[in-house]
Specification:
421 residues, alpha+beta, FAD/NAD(P)-binding domain, seven-stranded mixed sheet, 29% helix, FAD-dependent oxidoreductase
Length: 421
Amino acid sequence: MPEAMTEHFDVIVAGGGAGGLAAAVAAARMGARVLLVERYGFLGGAAANSLVLAYCGFFQKGETPVSAVEGIGAEVLRDLAELGQDVSAVRSRSGNWIIMLDPEAVKFAFDRFCTKTAVTVLLHSRVTGIATAGEGIASVTLTDHAGSHEFSASAFVDATGEATVCHLAGVEMFVDATRDDNVQPASMPIRIGGVAPNAVFDRNLLTQVIAEHNSGVVDMIPRADGGVMMQLPASGDYWWMNIDLVTDGLTGASLTHVEQQARREAWRNLALLRKLPGFENAYIAATGPQIGIRESRRPRSLHDLTGEALSRGTRRPDGIGHAAWPIEVHEAPGRARFVDIGGDGFADIPLDALRVSGKHNLFLAGRVAGADEAAYGSLRVMGTAFATGHAAGVAAAHSALGKGLSVTAVRRELAKQGALI
């Protein structure tokens, strides 16, 4: 049996997605000794583990793409470009600007970022316990196949998506009650290969095929227009998102049910897709290690970003980043609504949306950052997660290194690191 590991870091970041990477890199650039923990064998978050192959939130909506996120997020895009990926803004069917992704490039780019900024990475590890000290967290227990190991730190960032650190630390958690505690449905994007090089995707024909299917079955396809179908950079494969299922996003029983159901639906949908010209030899090239979770439990922050602030495009003196993706709320499988951001096309995210009551050295990044039900539909996307993660990492490093946690100091450091505030 290996000996238990005990080690101290200035900052420990849990979760290796966009928010977690940005937090770890930002803190390391301030001189903090940083540990980044990820449960999978790779970094990249939903882009890598759920095949959510589009960065949303990097740009404001409009006739031309206007940057809403810079700093570490923009640096990641430049790294992806160096690896040969086209990171040009693409206008989606919703009228919003997105960046299509290659998951292997994302994994490698994240690895390289951690190496060049001296971030210690621990993969295949889950946070399974928390030790508190007074009004803060003292250490986390990380569990891998060899056992459980304790790591202490002066500050922590929860970028887990499911707010695991917050939950284990006893932070007040909630699920939006306005939908009778039903969180937004999950989606399983699939990667489609085998499409003829000269094939043209015929949405009208697919809509007709789905309508014929739906007319005679119980298990109807909710996205009757075929859903999202976009060609990917590099491979030329297609990214297809047409499977939405309700899950709590937390329990093994619920996740097992939707994972297996999603695979059944993927193969059913493939048979329909093959009826399109040029798609006769299409096949499922990949699904992610897990279904894409939009929402589960969330912590209450000191000051949640609100839907009202987004509708007004509210600017704030304590802003640490821009929320520019529209309020995108998936009310049920196949049913989503978009509400554009007001004002100048973005709203400021307050620093206190990255902090919780009662845990002075715990910070939030990514989709666990504080937001009410409406604002969550904007704040949760990966482009914006780079912004909240960047700020959370700066705040955590200020706390850990004894530099004081003032809005002015955090904003000054974010500007120094190239963030857009």
